[in-house]
Amino acid sequence: MIYRTHNLGELRKENIGQKVTLSGWVATKRDLGGLTFVDLRDREGITQIVFHTDVADVAVVETAQKLKTESVIRIEGEVRERFSKNMNIPTGEIEVFATSLTILNSCETLPFQMTDTGLNENTRLKYRYLDIRRPQMINNLKMRHKMIMAIRNYMDKAGFLDVDTPILTKSTPEGARDFLVPSRTNEGQFYALPQSPQLFKQLLMIAGIEKYFQIAKCFRDEDLRADRQPEFTQLDIEMSFVELEDVTRIIEGLAKTVFTAVTGEVADYEFPRMEYREAMERYGSDKPDTRFGVELKDLTDIAGKCGFKAFTSTVEAGGIVKAVVAPGVADTFSRKILSDYEEYVKRYFGAKGMAWIKVTAEGVNSPIAKFFSEEEMKAIIERTEAKVGDVIIIVADKPKVVYASLGAVRLRLGKELNLYNKDEFKFLWIVHFPMFEYDEEEGRYKAEHHPFTSIMAEDMDRFLAGEMDIRTNTYDLVLNGSEIGGGSIRIHNPQVQEKVFEKLGLSQEQAREKFGFFVDAFKYGAPPHGGLAFGIDRWLMVMLKENSIRDVIPFPKTNKGQCLMTEAPGFVEKEQLEELYLESTYEEKKDN
Hints:
Elements: E1 19-32, E2 35-42, E3 45-52, H1 58-65, E4 72-81, E5 94-105, H2 121-126, H3 128-131, H4 135-157, E6 161-162, E7 180-182, E8 190-192, H5 198-206, E9 211-219, E10 231-240, H6 244-263, E11 273-275, H7 276-283, E12 297-298, H8 300-303, H9 309-316, E13 320-326, H10 335-349, E14 355-360, E15 363-365, H11 374-384, E16 391-397, H12 399-416, E17 427-431, E18 436-439, E19 444-447, H13 460-464, E20 474-479, E21 482-489, H14 494-503, H15 508-521, E22 529-535, H16 536-543, H17 574-579, H18 586-591
Parallel strand pairs: 3-5, 6-9, 11-17
Antiparallel strand pairs: 1-2, 1-4, 2-3, 4-5, 7-8, 9-10, 10-22, 12-13, 13-16, 14-15, 14-16, 17-20, 18-19, 20-21, 21-22
Helix pairs in contact: 4-6, 10-12, 14-15
């Protein structure tokens, strides 16, 4: 049985006069008495089908008149020149006069129309197989395919081997929570789903693979938001005998190739680099959006000597005072709007408060102006480069809180005030992240990236001497304020690796339990190596200018980690749990 001879988006004027068999979904139907028009759709496009009694039997036309939207049909007919052309679609100069019609599958009443633009996301996810039929989703998945193919072709030409690594592995500390899988054959023991193939790709370097890549599924049990999913796709890359410059050169070429494949644009420039510390000080973020200015300005020295106790006490306690300037909004930013900004930084970033100063033609307008001398206020305006009509927004707190607060305020201002070109793309390398960050809740140091990143040669003596303010050979690739990839040159010296574990509070016994196999491998000739991982989904989301990562993933989860279509996660039978040596409150929850 021949179901079709052409895709529905490929017929053109040169096909006029040909006999064709076409199959697809009924997108729209228009009845004009003895004349019925059907827009037939598949993933490649739309072709107009005409049912007319001059060409087809009356029974065929009558069947066409009864067609339901989204039914699947097959027609046979002749390609003719279209009388009323539609130049908005590639097939708009032709139409097909049908001589036969077969209904392959009729469609029941739809939960929503394919043309709906304001669909509730939960409805879209529950009926994802229908949502994917819509042009936006079809296009996003096509772009995902192009992206994957561009990656594979580039990596193959660059001499990389595609090697897969295990999904069931061992739970290790650091990072987000693991998804655990109980073992039926090993009582009381668990596998973990990989947060990334980090350990395995380094082991492949020790194994002599030299250039490895993989498009891998990864899993992290963490709080979700618009650019995160519990299950995501990662491009994982590792190579031996390289330094930072070698990795960034190869990765930059890959990024440019993929960018062109997806967007059709060319990034014909060398990606600029910025030190982590500079990024934090200027933008309050390790993934700054450099499409616009509004940079952070340091007021610590000025604020530390003023009469405003909230500022001076913060500085005395080792905190900092920084500001950003909201341009041209002195007349439009009411106290209510500014209070909303203050509540924003207090609720989401833990700031104690937020101060503001309006610069007007009549002078400054601010609740804190009385605490500053004329010279001090003048110094603030000069330091921030504020002009008449601007509003200076100030946060005083611990550095981490100030950077998070003002970094977020900066992004919010950029979006709400249209301070950047939404059609512009800007790549940026952020390099030399710190090795450690202090977790105040747990009262210990953690790895900023992961515990296998190598330490900069300039900082090695200080590290061995016990200092914690140490920089690493790390690099993140940022696109329009989103981290799309990150990596490092790895530690290949087992003594240095053991010292890092010690700094992270892992005893020798704990390190042996968690990473024994890994540390052992380094005793058998580990080459210098480094790599990087891209988040495929987030990278594509940024290039396609989507607001949610869920719009570039075929079957995503909600913010609660649920699949509304399959109703996962769900309860399982008590017998299944007993096989895994697990106790459960299953029956109680089922009854509730």
